[in-house]
Write a structure and sequence with these properties.
This protein has about 650 residues and is an alpha+beta fold. It has five domains: about 50-160, Beta-Lactamase (2-Layer Sandwich), CATH 3.30.450.20; about 180-285, PAS domain (Beta-Lactamase, 2-Layer Sandwich); about 320-415, Beta-Lactamase, CATH 3.30.450; about 415-505; about 510-655, Heat Shock Protein 90 (2-Layer Sandwich), CATH 3.30.565. The protein has helices at about 5-45, 80-85, 90, 100-110, 155-175, 215-220, 225-240, 285-310, 345, 360-375, 415-475, 480-505, 510-515, 515-530, 545-565, 605-615, 640-655, and strands spanning about 50-60, 65-70, 115-125, 130-140, 145-155, 185-190, 195, 200, 205, 210-215, 245-250, 255-270, 275-285, 320-325, 330-335, 380-385, 390-400, 405-415, 535-540, 570-580, 585-590, 620-625, 630-640. The strands form five sheets. A six-stranded antiparallel β-sheet has the order 10-7-6-13-12-11, sandwiched between helices. Strands 2-1-5-4-3 form a five-stranded antiparallel β-sheet, sandwiched between helices. Strand 17 (about 390-400) and strand 18 (about 405-415) form a beta hairpin. The longest helix has about 60 residues, at about 415-475. The protein starts with 5 loop residues before the first helix and ends with a helix. It holds the Pfam family PAS_4. It catalyses: ATP + protein L-histidine = ADP + protein N-phospho-L-histidine. InterPro entries: HATPase_C_sf, HATPase_dom, PAC, PAS, PAS-assoc_C, PAS-like_dom_sf, PAS_4, PAS_fold_3. Keywords: Coiled coil, Kinase, Phosphoprotein, Transferase.
């Protein structure tokens, strides 16, 4: 065999070397692209209001591993490293009240891997704060013994809080608007006689011979299935409660079933024995029907959400947000979905600013510049035309950093249209409650004036007349002098009680001399009537405040002092009222026995009244107490800011 020419061999080796260098360069380029894509996806996941996860479960539930947990878990107070070290932490962080439901769903999914795992549950952070989480995931079989679940955990705390606030506001509004004359009754407990508001008791759908019926008539009209439960409730109320609330069904003569709701108070004698019920009941059948329809809609909506979650194939598709990544020039590199009439092809490669409305363009450019040039996290709200309407979007923009340099931006846009509509509805309900409260305060004021200018004046005149008669009887030594003196003393007591009634309705001194004098009058009345010492310290001017606001401040102090007197075991309280700029502060302190806040019932209307009054005026109330160390009530109220906010929300609601 002839020897190969060395020059040809060298040429071949050089050619192979060049080819290897070219392949290496291509592999390095592909590696850089993969690193950029991985960094983009991680940046995208970290900007979501959720975290992504992957689990490895043994089908019998005995083992759990966490191959992957996204950085988004930090919004719940934990880190991925903690979960990697202790996978069981994923179970421990679940609120104890939700674990039974979680295990039930987990067991069902392990038995049938075709079922999607879907649950709304609470997560307890290390600082004991509670977050609502919505978990959705699907299973993939790894072997006969192991399954892998890929899913997402979304923070829905704000959604749950708004739903609860709206439900509470609507409940208060419905109660406030209930006609007080419908179904009013008085049950005399010793005689079991029930006096009603007319011969035809509306909520019972039948006519009675007179304006009274026996307790047996009351229960005979009730649905048989509800009688035992209602009797047990009444028994408990008689034993240890002063207010009651009970729902039951009645059967009308035509056979129709109606749902009734009872509210009322229990009147007791000096020995604490219940002697009378004063209550009102009204037909809430339409509310029960609406509740059933709402529950059906909730079930249908939940099923739709579950079906949508089952179709999600990629991690980015788990988010309901509009997710985008931009390059350094603000051009769109990725988007998970688009609005109607806009295709992905139109968006990819185009500047994101091209899809902004003219009025938002300048502010969006400024925010993008701050992120792309300086790496700042920015957040703003904007609107976007969508399916014939307008979406309100909450936009969060963060830098995409690779190898220590800003390579672009990651944007998550959340649809907050329903949230804003809910806030506007909530503001409208609060305003309506304020107006009802204002009407009530006005009626209290008029009633107080009528008592002061009418009844009190007549009684004072009668007192003067009896004084004159007393002198004549005294001169004559008349035997009726003692009886006349008793009658005169009763008139004096009536005058004192009438003035106390005026004070409870609305102290006239508020309107005549202002808030400060009204508080001092309150302290003097507490000292005179109960021997209770309330020190009043006021700082600032309050003359220009809205009368409804000053009335609320007076009621808060009145309720706080009353609570201290009745429950603290001390005879002294310090009250401080301050005005600092556009903020009002009320502090009520005592050195009494204190109490455990966790054991206080929501039906303690004193505490709840303070909190609700503060909330209704856009403020807050904080109550700190510990056994043996006393109690501190601290209330903050705005002067004009809340009224301006409510007006702005109502205007925006009207426009939309």
């Amino acid at each position: 065999m002839d020897s190969q020419n060395p020059e040809n061999l060298i040429a071949q080796l050089r050619e192979r070397l060049n080819e290897a260098e070219s392949n290496r360069a291509e592999l390095e380029r592909e590696n850089r692209e993969l690193r950029q894509q991985v960094a983009a996806l991680r940046g995208l996941a970290d900007n979501l209001p959720c975290f992504l996860f992957q689990t490895k479960n043994k089908v019998d539930g005995s083992e759990l591993e966490m191959p992957f947990v996204g950085n988004g878990i930090t919004r719940f107070g934990y880190t991925p490293e903690q979960v990697y070290q202790r996978p069981e932490l994923m179970i421990e962080m679940i609120h104890p009240d939700d674990r039974e439901l979680y295990f039930a769903k987990a067991d069902a999914c392990l038995k049938d891997p075709s079922l999607p795992f879907a649950i709304d549950m609470r997560i307890v952070a290390p600082d004991q704060s509670v977050h609502w989480a919505r978990v959705r995931s699907n299973a993939m079989r790894l072997s006969d013994d192991f399954l892998s679940y890929n899913g997402v955990c979304i923070d829905v705390t704000e959604e749950k809080e708004i739903e609860a606030a709206l439900a509470e506001s609507q409940s208060q509004l419905k109660l406030a608007l209930t006609p007080p004359h419908v179904g009013v009754y008085f049950w005399d407990i010793p005689t079991n006689k029930v006096t009603i508001t007319g011969k035809h008791f509306p909520v019972y759908g039948r006519q009675f011979e007179d304006d009274a019926m026996s307790l047996d008539d009351f229960f005979n009209a009730m649905h048989p299935e509800d009688r035992p439960r209602t009797k047990e409730v009444l028994k408990e109320i008689l034993a240890n409660q002063n207010t009651y609330e009970v729902n039951y069904r009645v059967i009308w003569p035509d056979g129709s079933i109606h749902h009734l709701s009872d509210r009322g108070v229990v009147i007791r004698n000096d020995k604490g024995q219940a002697v009378q019920f004063c209550g009102v009941c009204w037909d809430v059948t339409h509310l029960e029907q609406s509740r059933g329809e709402l529950e059906t809609k909730v079930v249908e909506a939940s099923a739709e959400i579950d079906a949508m979650a089952a179709r999600w194939q990629a991690m980015s598709d788990c988010s309901p947000d509009f997710l985008m990544t931009l390059d350094r020039n603000g051009r769109t590199q990725y988007i998970n979905r688009t609005a109607a009439g806009v295709t992905r092809e139109q968006v990819i490669g185009s500047p994101m600013i091209d899809f902004a409305t003219p009025e938002d363009r300048d502010s969006i450019l400024e925010n993008l510049k701050a992120t792309l040039e300086r790496g700042e996290m920015k957040q703003w709200e904007t609107s976007f035309p969508y399916e014939g309407g307008v979406l309100d979007l909450l936009v969060r923009c963060g830098p995409l950093i690779l190898d220590g340099e800003i390579q672009g931006a990651v944007i998550a846009s959340t649809d907050v249209s329903e949230l804003r509509r809910t806030q506007r509805r909530l503001a409208h309900d609060e305003q309506l409650l304020r107006e009802l409260w204002q009407l009530q305060e006005k009626e209290r004021q008029l009633t107080a004036l009528e008592i002061h200018d009418g009844f009190v004046q007549y009684v004072v005149g009668a007192q003067f007349a009896l004084d004159a008669v007393r002198y004549r009887l005294q001169d004559e030594g008349h035997p009726a002098l003692e009886d006349q003196a008793k009658g005169l003393e009763m008139l004096r007591s009536a005058i004192v009680e009438a003035r106390r009634t005026i004070s409870r309705l609305r102290p006239l001194v508020i309107d005549d001399d202002g808030l400060v004098e009204a508080l001092r009058y309150l302290a003097a009345e507490e000292q005179d009537r109960y021997g209770f010492d309330a020190t009043i310290d006021c700082e600032g001017k309050f003359e220009d405040l809205d009368p409804l606001l000053t009335g609320a401040m007076f009621r808060i102090v009145q309720e706080g002092v009353s609570n201290v007197r009745r429950h603290s075991g001390t005879s002294h309280a310090d009250v401080a009222v301050r005005r600092k700029g556009d903020r009002l502060e009320i502090g009520i302190n005592d050195r009494g026995k204190g109490f455990d806040l966790k054991k206080v019932s929501n039906e303690r209307f004193g505490v709840r009244g303070i909190i609700e009054r503060a909330r209704l005026f856009g403020g807050s109330a904080k109550i700190d107490s510990s056994l043996g160390k006393g109690t501190r009530i601290f209330v903050q109220l705005p002067t004009l800011a809340r009224q301006t906010e409510l007006h702005a929300l109502q205007q925006s609601m009207t426009q939309k």
